[in-house]
Amino acid sequence: MRDLHLSLNQTQRVRLQAALDQLESYAASTAAAAASVTVADSIPVNHEDNILKGHGTSDLDGQVVATLCGVVERVNKLVYVRALRSRYKPEVGDIIVGRVIEIAPKRWRLEINFSQDAVLMLSSMNLPDGIQRRRTAVDELNMRSIFVENDVICAEVRGFQHDGSLQLQARSQKYGKLEKGQLLTVPPYLVKRRKQHFHHLDQYNVDLIVGCNGFVWVGEHVETSEKESTLLSDKPSGKQETDNSVPLETRRHICRIANAVRLLSVIGLTLTVESVTETVEASLRSNIEINEMLGSEFYVQTVEREAQRRASMVRKRS
Amino acid sequence: MVGLSEGEKQFLRGGIEQDLRSDGRTRHQFRSVYVETGVIPQANGSARVRLGATEVIASIKAELGKPSLLHPDKGKVSIFVDCSPTAAAIYGGKGGEELSMELSVALERCLLGGKSGAGAAIDLSSLVLVEGKVCWDLYIDALVVSSDGNLLDSLAAAIKAALSNTGLPKVNVVLGASPEEQPEVDVSDEEFLQFDTSTVPAIITLTKVGKHYIVDATSEEESQMNSAVSVSVNRNGQICGLTKRGGAGLDPSVILDMVSVAKHVSQQFTSDLDSEIAAAEASDE
Amino acid sequence: MAASTYSPSQGAERRQRQQQMRRLSIQSDWDRSDGRSFIQCRPAFLRTGAANAASGSAYAEFGTTKVIVSVFGPRESKKAMMYSDIGRLNCNVTFTTFATSLRGQGSDNKEYSAMLHKALEGAVILETFPKTTVDVFALVLESGGSDLPVIISCASLALADAGIMMYDLVSSVSVSCIGKNILIDPTNEEEVCQDGSLVLACMPARNEVTQLTLTGEWSLPKINEAMELCMDACLKLAGIMRSCLKESANLSN
């Protein structure tokens, strides 16, 4: 929870402090507090074992010293430091959302909130006509008919290139261009790896795609079969002036869900589909206007709800 | 500034048409404004204003100087805006100069009034101590810390808050024996004159996207604008300044309509801003 | 309200104060204007997370010197086109127009930017972010003396907040030599009439000096004394920085 920039009145301040203290007491009960280190703190190790020095550590006169601020993790003989507010650490198979910044020969370059840009090869992308064949020179010239600059794309991490940047693939039907919605950026450490990153919220007719890199897409629901047909019907010249604007009811839901994501990222809570839907339902219950979800009253209410949730979890455990 | 895909642009424009923007606001709603005063203790007055993710700091320094020969009965005010590289990487070095210049000029136009001094935010003749010899020079410095659209409105709000935080020390002037001699000044350390900021106007920027105009645009919405009109309205509903930006041409009736919308919106915004400033001043003490 | 600038009277007052200082410096024992002893630093107030948009940031307040540093990255930079197996550190120091008592031009201070870079490059492990750049932007909100050491310490804190791998935190202090006396952490008015100065930046846990600059006329034992004083102060300052990082780590849990 960084610098809070909302004007709270006195009662709100008191309620917020009480909820924060409650959350802190639950966090402190875990052993994490004891193992936190800052830069150049020496890590206690048993020198008899052959300790493997992992990420975030270095050797100083035989002592193992941290080079990052974070929590010390030990796995068998490996000792490493896990940073608390780390950057995105990609793994093969991650689902990410990115934006095209450049079209290069036979590939697209995407910005994905990582230290380097990622690459999507033409061969890792389904062709519009759906036939599996070798990419010809004509395909290369028509790359623009598939994706242009600034398009938002959902893809999967295929592997790493020799210089450490990512290679992506978008072969399946569920990947591809994202339209009719908005893209949000949240800190990557708030997104934990789960089985599912594509969430179709039926009751709102909204797609919620939580990218592991911190880009979150909230948009109108698109059937996966429809995605292929839109690629075919995309005319390379001119924009589509067809009447495909989003209906007002769906738009309301999209904005509500987007605001819930913004609120959770400002508070610093992990972003899961459950937390997002819970927040949206709570806002509907309390009859809060969509834009008021980002205001001080709902902020304090959400923190209080989280404290109550943790309290009930602790009670269930004990 | 990152670009937007076609799909995102259509979503944005559709939202504005349907009066429901991406964060749930209607076309005429402002983001919540947050004011802090007295952030620069060594200045005469200062304030920090947050409008959504846009954050600006304004500081006011007063120095004794000589009035210009053209206007011996007026003090001097100069406004200078600086875009810090923390706001966007392009602002480092020469990148932010053009934007800073544009913002400084627009602010001066809205806050300094006509040549005769009519409609100015600050009564310049109140800054004069000895006509023709000694006056106050006010230097208003504004710093853009982070930018998410609508810089002009936030800067004007910050300047207003800083002015209400400003205290000019009382000066005792001892006139010299002959009219040509420079009078002696004795600056008091205790007594201060507060500024009356009820005449300071607020600036409302209306951004035209498609057929509709929106208030308080984020940088995403600003990237989609055809044109924008910034109107400065004071407490009495008088227009104190107007600037049109953007290449697209506007029908004159549209401009007049935008001005009346700005007038209407400014009432709510000014009262919100004033209560925020009052709360900030109260918590400062 | 703090004293502001009034051009007519300021000149005379300042000159009087400087003359007074010169007279005092010949003696060996006198009080500093804020009541500190010669070997006492100003109380330090440090806070991380001051700028939300940056990867890491820190705010430092040492008496009347206020600095805010934001760190962006590691991110791709348009300038560095060549492949390199180590990262690039880009430092930039700006003074705001209201930082000094005499309203100055708010432009980039190239000298301080270069010195900040030299102080930090020994501590940052550049091999961990090849091909990319880490941008460090320092903004001086108020200049109250001993500016560069405060900028260096604050920048090191911001880098740790951003999760950039470093061998150790870099802390920095400066000493002024006035007459026979050595004063640590000088204020503006002490710096103005100093005979010599020594700025030291070091990594306390490794006992390594990353930057040392000296001006004026110094004898060897004096340099020794000054360096020892600085290293000791740097160690204490690093302890304060460390506890600040621990506190913010506990909060984000």
UniProtKB/TrEMBL annotation, chain A:
The keyword Zinc-finger does not apply. Transmembrane segments: none annotated. GO terms for cellular component: cytoplasmic exosome (RNase complex); nuclear exosome (RNase complex). GO terms for biological process: CUT catabolic process; exonucleolytic trimming to generate mature 3'-end of 5.8S rRNA from tricistronic rRNA transcript (SSU-rRNA, 5.8S rRNA, LSU-rRNA); nuclear polyadenylation-dependent rRNA catabolic process; poly(A)-dependent snoRNA 3'-end processing; TRAMP-dependent tRNA surveillance pathway; U4 snRNA 3'-end processing. The keyword Nucleus applies. InterPro entries: Exosome_RNA_bind1/RRP40/RRP4, KH_dom_type_1, KH_dom_type_1_sf, NA-bd_OB-fold, S1_domain, S1_RRP4. CDD domains: KH-I_Rrp4_eukar (cd22525), S1_Rrp4 (cd05789). It is found in: Nucleus. GO terms for molecular function: RNA binding. Residues 91-171 form the S1 motif domain. Keywords: Exosome, Nucleus, RNA-binding, rRNA processing. Belongs to the RRP4 family. This is Exosome complex component rrp4-like protein.
Automatic annotation (TrEMBL), chain B:
SUPFAM superfamilies: Ribonuclease PH domain 2-like, Ribosomal protein S5 domain 2-like. GO terms for biological process: exonucleolytic trimming to generate mature 3'-end of 5.8S rRNA from tricistronic rRNA transcript (SSU-rRNA, 5.8S rRNA, LSU-rRNA); nuclear mRNA surveillance; nuclear polyadenylation-dependent rRNA catabolic process; rRNA catabolic process; TRAMP-dependent tRNA surveillance pathway; U1 snRNA 3'-end processing; U4 snRNA 3'-end processing; U5 snRNA 3'-end processing. It is found in: Cytoplasm; Nucleus, Nucleolus. Signal peptide: none annotated. One of its GO terms (molecular function) is mRNA 3'-UTR AU-rich region binding. Keywords: Cytoplasm, Exosome. This is Ribosomal RNA-processing protein 42. One of its GO terms (cellular component) is cytoplasmic exosome (RNase complex).
Automatic annotation (TrEMBL), chain C:
The keyword Transmembrane helix does not apply. Keywords: Cytoplasm, Exosome, Nucleus, RNA-binding, rRNA processing. Residues 1-29 are annotated as: Disordered. Pfam families: RNase_PH (PF01138), RNase_PH_C (PF03725). It is found in: Cytoplasm; Nucleus. The keyword tRNA processing does not apply. Transmembrane segments: none annotated. GO terms for cellular component: cytoplasmic exosome (RNase complex); nuclear exosome (RNase complex); nucleolus. Residues 1-10 have a biased composition (Polar residues). Residues 40-164, 168-229 form the Exoribonuclease phosphorolytic domain. It comes from the Eukaryota. GO terms for biological process: nuclear mRNA surveillance; poly(A)-dependent snoRNA 3'-end processing; rRNA catabolic process; rRNA processing; U4 snRNA 3'-end processing. One of its GO terms (molecular function) is RNA binding. Belongs to the RNase PH family. This is Exosome complex component MTR3.
